Every structure is written in C-alpha cells, then in structure tokens.
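Pipeline run #58 for the internal structure catalog. This entry was flagged by the ingest filter as a single-chain record with no existing model, so it goes straight to prediction. Upstream metadata was stripped on purpose; only the residue string is passed forward. Reviewer on rotation: M.T. Logging verbosity set to normal.
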Amino acid sequence: MADLYSELNVARGASEADIKKAYRKLAKELHPDKNKDNPKATERFSKVTRAYDILTDKDKRAQYDRGEIDEEGNPRMPFGFGGGGPNAGGGGRGGRGGFRGPNGETFEYGGEAADISDLFEGLFSGGRRGGGGGPFSGFGRRSAPPQKGADVAYRLEVPFEDAARLQGQRVTLGSGKTLDIKLPPGVEDGTRIRLSGQGQPGPAGTGDAIVTIAITPHRFFKREGHNIRLDLPVSIDEAVLGAKVRVPTVDGPVMLSVPRGSSSGKVLRLKGKGFTAKGGRRGDQLVTLMVDVPDDPELAQFLEGWSGKGKANPRASFGV
C-alpha cells in the first residue's frame, strides 16, 4: 500500500495547508460524480480521502509518522522478529543476535550457546507451559482472528445554510450507490458520520463508510459557535429615524426593527436563527448595523448648517 504522503503527492514534512491544497486538487479530479465509468478513479478518491483524514488529524498523523498505525489507521504489530539490521544474525556458537521489544528496546544474545528461553517466557504467555516446546511453543500456532473489511473514507461538502438547518444530505459511495444521511445536532466542520456496513467486504463482515463533513463558507454569514453573525447595511435615514427592514437568515428573510437613532456597530438579535447545538437548542443570529453614508450634496449642505448647533462630541469619553 502506498505511503499516505505519496497518495496526496506531498512531502512527508508538508504543512497542513499544503495537505489540504493537494487534497482539494485531487478530490476535484477523482470525485465519483465526475468518474462514474472509472472505478479506478473512485478507488483512488477513497484512498486520498483516507490519507487526508489521517494526515489532518494531529494525533493520528503523529502515530502514523511513528509507525504506530498503518495507512488505513489500524494499529501495526507492536514488534516483530527477523529481518536485517546490525543486530540481526544467527544465534550459533559464538555468534550474536537480537530482537526489538514492544517499547523499542533492543535485546541481544550471544556467546556460548546463549539460552534465551526464560526471556521469551516473560514476553509470551504459555511459552513453555504444558511440556517442552521451546521458547516459541504455542506462539507460531496462534492464528489471527478474522478481520472485518476496511472502512472507506468520504468527504461531503455541505452548504452553510443546510448545516444550520440540519438539512438532510445525499452521499454517493464508491460503488455508485447513493444514501441519504441526516446531519446530527452540533454538526461542525470536520464532524464524522459512520455509515455501518457501507465499506469494504471482509471475512468477518463489511467495514463502514466514514463521511467527514466540510461546511462551505458563506458569502455574508459567519459562524460564531452556535450563533451566526451578519453585518447589515442600513441607510442613514433608517438609522436616524428607525425603520423595519428585511434581513436574510438561513431560514429565509425576516423583518427586523431598527431602533431610532441607531449607530454603526449596534448589534440586534434574531433568536433561534443560528446553528443547532447537541442538546437541540438553536443559537441566534447577531445582526451588526453598518450605517451607509451616501455622497449626497444636499445631505452635506444640511450637515454643514447643523454642525454648528452645539452637537455633542462623540469622542468625549476618550478625553480628546
């Protein structure tokens, strides 16, 4: 199996930004919707998505770099025997040999017919139980249990408004099968949804599909926890005299009352128009008023006459 960094065509020391950039490029080329008649592209899409998920998870990336997990995120065998290396070799008369323990420590043996059976008994339960079988007795005959099929990773882009409303989404699997999924309360960028039995087949059952949610940014809404922020332009007469104005929300436009004498920066609250928390309660939409001052000759002429009528200094609290 290819190295995860090679799957994404990045260097081992690549930054998270470089990894994300490489993944976006490959995902556009290999997405199943664009390669319905190309199963190899679909298989590669699954592999690069799995590589992306592991390498953008700091803990898993560190485990992978240390060799603790494999390219599918499964734990590797803690230690092994045989192979090359400076301590490898026969255990014959006068020779030296060795092996590496589960924590990386090195054990050496050598000299005159070294007997390491006691050492192996400490490492493997049942090493010499029930009669002499040598230090490996019972170890080599133990077969691994059947394994489930591999999990398959997917990345699903969800529009900002859909994520806020928990709108159901449709995902296309590598097999071409489509499934409708529900977004959970508390969904955020990076949330993972497990689809049981939708992965690769195996002797002990089929693996799962792991769908990672990527919420697309919005052109004027911004998320702040479970609340949504919006900068709303208002005209100078609406700010001075007060008005009712239409405001966009993720649920559609609503009417908002702008208080008389409002200034830029004033924040108004629309309750229940934010994201849904894990407990089921929805956040709010926080609307910041931005007074739009036009370049109008009549307004300028009016203000020139008004400015000398003892108006208050708005910066007085600053001592200037």
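catalog note: Residues 222-305 form a domain with the HSP40/DNAj peptide-binding domain fold (CATH 2.60.260.20).
catalog note: Residues 54 and 60 are 6 Å apart (CA to CA).
status: ready for reviewer M.T.
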